[in-house]
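User: Sequence in, structure out. Go.
Assistant: Echoing your sequence, followed by the structure tokens.
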Amino acid sequence: MSGVVVPTLFIVACGGDARNSPPGGGGASASPADAPASGTPARAAGSGERKIVLFVGTSLTAAMGLDPEQGYPARLQEKIDSAGLPFEVVNAGVSGEISSEARQRVEKWLVKQPFDVLVVETGANDMLRGFSLPNLERNLQAIVDTARATHPEARIVLAGMLAPPNLGADYGERFQRVYAEVAERNDLPLVPFLLDGVGGLPEMNLGDGIHPNPAGHRRVAENVWPVLEPVLRAEAAEAGGSSSAAGDSSTP
């Protein structure tokens, strides 16, 4: 992303080896590949009429170090509600997850859940641990393929990341290109850099200098909303049209 500086401070794995416990569990850790969605918000009465926006991601999505209600998915729920759109956000972020684990979790558990829009945020931990970029691309593509095979009507949004300058210009260009190419190949809306205006800035992060604080998550929501909002409006309009057509029983 031209003009965006990613400070050196960001070069630490997001969430380390931390893992979220499955809801309702006794505190035992679960493998990201097998764990159900963590931080799933309670649903209001009648919420069955609302469509589901499922967020798959790392500690950045899970809002590590904060109450999940302070994370960017919850901030996006506020924007959705303010816009009067009929969607409910479900946060399935897992701290410390790499893209291969996200792929396994989607294949084993998450595709069994209802969703109308899938937001995919993964790969930062692959990059920060020096994992293969071709493998990252394969994992992202597999997530897209699995989601489309099991939920063919669902829309998918991809959240991109940038590599810090410490890893070199060539690596940074190749890393960013993974997201751009997966998005282009699959005709996906792309958030160019999830942490734009947040990554490495002390005032936007917790004391670890890595994970966004409440202000940082509000900025992340601002980065995602211009890409997500048109997707939600298109989905809502299509659903409204389908409902109108199904409800019209008049004969010509």
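User: And one key feature?
Assistant: Strands lie at 51-57, 87-93, 117-120, 155-159, 190-191.
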